[in-house]
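Side project, low priority. Logging it here so it doesn't get lost.
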Amino acid sequence: MLGLSPRLRAQIEDWAAAGYPEETCGLLLGRALGEGTAVEQATHGHNLNRVRAHDRFELDPRDFIAAEHAARDAGLEIVGVWHSHPDHPAHPSETDRACAWAGWSYLIVAVDAGGAVDSRSWRLAGGDGPFAEEALVP
């Protein structure tokens, strides 16, 4: 289960919509809570992939380092990644799977020209298996 407040969810969906038609990305900061994860902050990153920005993202390492510092300063940790899928469903791609880290949540926001369409969260099943959807709760 991924706990995400309506305010943070709206902020992430706004960032995703603003980046359309390119993929946008960022990190989720929070803490593990029993069988779930609570997101307390989100960051917006820069997509360095300029060749295939419409269907790939590469988070700028400087954004990752800044998020690590922000998380540490707030007593949190990086608990996942969010990114958009322009004109595609909020389901992980094979590229998403190949780049995924065990133990992290992967929030995907489907967007089109009208804005955010759907948001869903995923985790690697068994730590290194296929993605399994996790409940997205306020």
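Brief comment: The first strand starts at residue 2 and ends at 3.
Revisit when time allows.
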